[in-house]
Amino acid sequence: MRRGEEAMVPQAEFRSYYGQPVIKSPIWHEPHMPVYLYLGGTSGAASMLAAMATLTGRDRLALTARLVAAGGAAGGAAFLVAELGRPERFLNMLRVFKPTSPMSVGSWVLAVHSGLTALAAGSALVTPRRPPSGPPPSRLAAALPARLAAVLSGTRPAPSPSRTAGAAGAAGVAGVAALRARLVAALPSRAVTLLPATGDAAGLVAVLTGPLMATYTAVLVADTAVPAWHEAHRELPFLFAGSALAGAGAASMLATPLRDAGPARAAAVLGATVETVAGAVMERRLGMLGEPYRQGVSGRLMRAARVLTVAGALLAPVAGRGRTLTALSGLALTGGALCTRFGVLRAGKASAADPKYTVVPQRERLEAARQEAARGENGENAEI
Amino acid sequence: MAERMGFFTDTSICIGCKACEVACKEWNHVPDDGFVFRATSYDNTGSLGADTWRHVAFIEQPGRARDGRGPGGPDGSDGAASNGGFEDIEGWLMSSDVCKHCTHAACLDVCPTGALFRTEFETVVVQADVCNGCGYCVPACPYGVIDRREGDGRAFKCTMCYDRQLGGLEPACAKVCPTDSIQFGPLDELRARAAERLEHLHAGGRSEARLYGADPGDGVGGDGAFFLLMDEPEVYGLPPDPVVTTRDLPAMWGWAAGAALSMAGAVAISFLGRSRSFPGRSR
Amino acid sequence: MAECHPVGFQWVVEAKARGAKVFHIDPRFTRTSAIADRYLPIRAGSDIVLLGALINHVLTRELDFREYVLAYTNASSIISEDFGDTEDLDGLFSGFDPETRAYDPASWSYEGSGEEASGGGEHLEGGRHHSAAAGGDQYGSGGAPASSRPPSDPTLRHPRCVYQILRRHFARYTPELVEELCGIRPEDFAELADAITANSGRERTTAWAYAVGWTQHTVGAQYIRAASILQLLLGNIGRPGGGILALRGHASIQGSTDIPTLFNLLPGYLPMPHAHRHGGLDDYLANVGADTGFWGRKRAYTVSLLKAWWGEAATAENDFCFGHLPRVTGDHGHFTTVMAQIDGTVKGYFVVGENPAVGSSGGRAQRLGLANLDWLVVRDLTLVETATFWKDGPDLATGEMRTEDIATEVFFMPAASHVEKEGTFTNTQRLLQWRHKAVEPPGDCRSDLSFYYHLGKRIRQRITDDEIDRPLRELTWDYPEEGEHAEPSADAVLREINGTGPDGRALSAYTELEPDGSTRCGCWIYCGVYADEVNQAARRKPRGEQDRVAPEWGWAWPANRRILYNRASADPEGRPWSERKAYVWWDAERGEWTGHDVPDFERDKPPGYRPPEGALAEAALAGTDPFIMQPDGKGWLFAPSGLADGPLPAHYEPHESPVRNPLYGQQANPGRQTYQRPESPYNPPGSSRFPYVLTTYRLTEHHTAGGMSRPLAYLAELQPELFCEVSPALAAELGLVNGGWATIVTSRTAIEARVLVTGRVRPLRLQGGTVHQIGLPYHWGWGSGGLVTGDTVNDLMPLVLDPNVYIQESKAMTCDLRPGRRPTGRALLDLIEEYRRG
Ligand SMILES: Nc1nc2c(c(=O)[nH]1)N[C@H]1C(S)=C(S)[C@@H](COP(=O)(O)OP(=O)(O)OC[C@H]3O[C@@H](n4cnc5c(=O)[nH]c(N)nc54)[C@H](O)[C@@H]3O)O[C@H]1N2
Ligand SMILES: Nc1nc2c(c(=O)[nH]1)N[C@H]1C(S)=C(S)[C@@H](COP(=O)(O)OP(=O)(O)OC[C@H]3O[C@@H](n4cnc5c(=O)[nH]c(N)nc54)[C@H](O)[C@@H]3O)O[C@H]1N2
Ligand code: SF4
Ligand code: SF4
Ligand code: SF4
Ligand code: SF4
Ligand code: SF4
Ligand SMILES: [Mo]
């Protein structure tokens, strides 16, 4: 191709060095990286659900959410370490704090967050749970002015024990009770009395780390030269946040008695909606760079994610009707959240592997700048 | 801080001898990159990576029927003749690529451990004893330079021979380059020299000559290692308009914050009026 | 040059930056072409046509540097009327004996000097091989004898004067012929011709650089002759920026011809005595070249050499032990020796720093020879194929050899590399540079000097006082030993080579050598390298601290002169031809030659000096005769003798060529050396089974037979596999895929290589048809501890040589090419059989 001729680079017509990539593909592996994204996000969102549940005196939901949050953070950290080339040097992550490095920021967030959520979960396990009915005994809820508490928890006459708190729920409760009994026995009495308070506190602070956990990973991947990631830096946070919420909602509804899982289902639906919308907007806005999200393996994964998420979201409203529906909805949403993360990783790698995605947009950028300058010279209004 | 040191690689006088590649590996004990015949002209190491810190690219430029003269030379005439209708070659470009030691280095910005740091020569170097192989620098580099070494787990790239510079020696690759295609020195001097060289080539009619990475106003604030190229950057496997990825970081955090808040909102909402929208108990 | 002399090429790049215009003439577009101003593709084996046409261009347009030509060349000399040119004899010169396929050069001589020049003429038993025994070297560096004052015609009109003979001889070499045979377009030829003529004369000079692209031909020596004629006509010899630069090969390959590892030379280009042609010392000296010019001092050189070797034992009475010298009886060259091995007449073999099983033409014949020895000594850095062929050679796979049948006892001696020992390198421009030892050699590795010295000592311990052992007994073999391994002092050896005077002190110039045995000198041209008892080769004064001639960097033979025959840089009166090109000149006041370089001339011989009748040696040359080694002091446009295949270059096709020679009935060099042997048959002439031109060459990334590069990861990874370079057109025609496999076939064998499709190799339109060329680098083999291996290209090469220096024709032959890998085992032999049947 001649100089001058590339005045306007025709789409996808471009030159390269033997078709080799210009940038290096992310070396992050499957399942480590995507699973971490899922677990971290889920943990972040779950911690918020937990806090709200606690505030609104939904201790049962709070318990699950806290466990999900803690489990997600711990599991995520494990995958993160496993992803390192030198796992034994994981702690080097905390050697410095670098605002310019989303991974540095993220590492600190993860460190704090996993601590908080662990504490919260721990306390939830040892704190005696209020009877399924009656006024909110949760120390926090109790501390709140009755009216506000009422609004928050939206209580009317306390619900009577219902069939819908099915066997699973009961079993769950029994299991938790047994576990708690053992823990309490193990802990020094002083701790037992102190833990609940600190646990709740930790759970509340996690409201700050939670959202970060759910979204920093979007910045992490966007802050690279990978075209399909970098250019998507507006939508990715919403995609991840939504997917995190959907995931957390799903996980929580799966392990909470139907009766107490209402907010989890609501969260799942909202999350799924955000995720789906963000994904659609992203692909449209990216134009050619959206290809990797539509084509090939990554494309299939993204489509699967969408189908599962939408399906799960549609089921969620009725999931309260039965365990099966809950299971279907929850699993669909979870699957959707996972597929999204795998799809995003694959799409990133695909966009890095093909020089087209690096060269063509940059050429267009240069060309635009050139015309801009030209127009400027022609004395016309340069800032368009 | 010492004066900023850099490289000016003048590809118009590179003879593709690869002495730079070899000297680099010798000095830095870089392992071989495998023994693969790539059938990409005389290039069998492919690209920069953890095991190749200097890489010589070979580009065979197919000729076009022109004014019936041999391949172009700095005297200006260009173009190969149509050889009785046979496919001809106009030129054979060779270029020794290396880490650009960017003014705004994405790899360094994103490194969470501080393993990557900026030296007193304003070069960008990995501290092998700190790097934990998180791999973040790899996709962050807009030039695809740094990479993680399989088996070892850490990231490696050109150090601009930090150790040699500390010892007052010029980098190994520049030292061995027979034609001075690789020139090492204070960046300002190099930029001036490069401008002159470009003048000269343009005056000689080599209008295709252009500097790459010499402009402090570019997306990475200018390269510590810049080049004189004889064709478009992408032909050499270089990005035409690289931008340090962290330039958009504030915006990214902004969008992330937005997403975080919306999430918080969504959570709050999900705890409202459940009885209405989501029957927990069927009556 | 960029490919094989990258470090030297920096000066070409520098010259280019200063405005020099660089042309590159090569069948392939190489790394050199990439930054040359002009690239001219040429068919391998056709350069004499191009050079001849340039000569013709200069002569017909009278663009020669006439003053220079008249004063400094033999243009005006008149040649014997017996001389018959290729013009008259359809491609043969007079004096050819079809039966021995050798020339008697008598008829080429200057008028009146008659038989004097018939050096190569006598016919001894053994036929041509005997007269060929010394080829062009039979006269040493003095060249052939010829009268110092031949009759001449300064008007250049005499029909038999060299100038007129040249005009007639080269008249056929036209731009049209260049297009027809070389494939170079007339407009490109014109540009080249204009450039070199415009860039020659008083104010400017043009240089030609060549290496084995010009020498590995059956007409190799004549390629260089053609370039010499052109450069002499343009006045580009003996002047700064001029010359014909031979870019040499191995480190110190120049040194190994100065102090030769060649069978037919003694140090300083003194011919090896011949068992039948030479009797005693006087007889020898009478037969080894001229008595005029500096070669006239050959007695001093020879006697000093004998004194260096046999010391006190060498006396005037015993001919200075001349009888102790070994003698040649004929051609003992590399390939003839290999044939003798196959025939069982050569039983032992030293292979030192060479890997013939991979590096020499006819690899299979080489290995057949090795397999038929009693003993073989290989000294190398690594276990090269030559040392391991018996257990892993390709001939085992085809069943042609069986390890259990090979009786050769192989001794492998690990060698110290150049960084593990001290000594000198003599490089391309005759510059001796001293190397200090950087590291101790590992394990049992020893320098070659140490090996030969201690081998000599042990042999001397075993010899009797029998007469036959006298030469060994009386040999001076006493160098100081250093270190735990008793390493002989290389410094002492260099001093012995330099030579000592009666007082035992180091001499400072070869002019101090005496014929009476009072001086000793191991190599007369190196005399002065140890002047003032200082190792002059070890000087390393930086470039910045001396002028551009840099006389204090190393030491150049002879007498530290950086440009040979530099008296030619001044006009006959001794004034520089121009300010711009001033180099050495005559200083009338001081009555001596002076300038930037050491004058290659007697310091005090005035330009006006005219030799008296019957003067000898340098005294026989006038003050206007710059070519002081020549008997007539002139640059030879026409060589009255000294070459085995003619006084002038004529274009002959390579031994194997797809093209007929349109110039003469004589297709190929009549004097070329062939071996009609079953081990290594030739492609049937004009056979349509071998339609392509094959040329072989080097890659920057590897070294020759690969023993030094294939075992090194950092080099091996850069060019991991043997490949063949083919044009897109040929690839399309044969269905070859870039990166795929192809099989290259000759009558010798077939090898496989990866395919590299590239526009850098282009088909040529010749004689109406299309000629495709195929390029093969030859660095691969099956062993040498190589990290990368590949088929051996030399197994394809024919055994056919230049008759002057016995270099193999490995730059131009024919072959066939087929897609896919080669058959293995027996099937390979069957395939070749099929091809041989034509
Ligand atoms: N890197 C490296 N350097 C080396 C060596 C090495 O192996 N590797 N070997 C050393 C040695 S031993 C030597 S002798 C020198 C050799 O140095 P060169 O002579 O430069 O080496 P070659 O590549 O064999 O041949 C040079 C060119 O001749 C071209 N050629 C072939 N036939 C013809 C012809 O008929 N006419 C013309 N005009 N060109 C022709 C080939 O295409 C090739 O490009 O290099 C020395 N330097
Ligand atoms: N087809 C084809 N064939 C060719 C050529 C070609 O162009 N085409 N070129 C020809 C030319 S020009 C040449 S020079 C030959 C080269 O061919 P060879 O000389 O047979 O091959 P090399 O690999 O150079 O062998 C030199 C060996 O010396 C060893 N060595 C290095 N240093 C030392 C030392 O100090 N002492 C000892 N004892 N050994 C040492 C190295 O390890 C190496 O194995 O190839 C010739 N063959
Ligand atoms: S080129 Fe890449 S690796 Fe080198 S400094 Fe810039 S960002 Fe870092
Ligand atoms: S891989 Fe090493 S150098 Fe690269 S970002 Fe991670 S810690 Fe820093
Ligand atoms: S500067 Fe040093 S490390 Fe960098 S490429 Fe050159 S030799 Fe290698
Ligand atoms: S050493 Fe110099 S000339 Fe050789 S390849 Fe490297 S840059 Fe080019
Ligand atoms: S290998 Fe040695 S001789 Fe050959 S180019 Fe390099 S430096 Fe010069
Ligand atoms: Mo050679």
From TrEMBL, chain B:
<feature type="transmembrane region" description="Helical">
    <location>
        <begin position="252"/>
        <end position="273"/>
    </location>
</feature>
<dbReference type="Pfam" id="PF12800">
    <property type="entry name" value="Fer4_4"/>
</dbReference>
<keyword id="KW-0472">Membrane</keyword>
<keyword id="KW-0411">Iron-sulfur</keyword>
<feature type="domain" description="4Fe-4S ferredoxin-type">
    <location>
        <begin position="5"/>
        <end position="34"/>
    </location>
</feature>
<keyword id="KW-1133">Transmembrane helix</keyword>
<feature type="domain" description="4Fe-4S ferredoxin-type">
    <location>
        <begin position="90"/>
        <end position="121"/>
    </location>
</feature>
<keyword id="KW-0004">4Fe-4S</keyword>
<protein>
    <submittedName>
        <fullName>4Fe-4S dicluster domain-containing protein</fullName>
    </submittedName>
</protein>
<dbReference type="InterPro" id="IPR014603">
    <property type="entry name" value="Formate_DH_Fe-S_su"/>
</dbReference>
<keyword id="KW-0408">Iron</keyword>
<keyword id="KW-0812">Transmembrane</keyword>
<feature type="domain" description="4Fe-4S ferredoxin-type">
    <location>
        <begin position="122"/>
        <end position="151"/>
    </location>
</feature>
<dbReference type="InterPro" id="IPR051555">
    <property type="entry name" value="FDH_Electron_Transfer_Unit"/>
</dbReference>
<keyword id="KW-0677">Repeat</keyword>
<dbReference type="Pfam" id="PF13247">
    <property type="entry name" value="Fer4_11"/>
</dbReference>
<dbReference type="InterPro" id="IPR017900">
    <property type="entry name" value="4Fe4S_Fe_S_CS"/>
</dbReference>
<dbReference type="InterPro" id="IPR017896">
    <property type="entry name" value="4Fe4S_Fe-S-bd"/>
</dbReference>
<keyword id="KW-0479">Metal-binding</keyword>
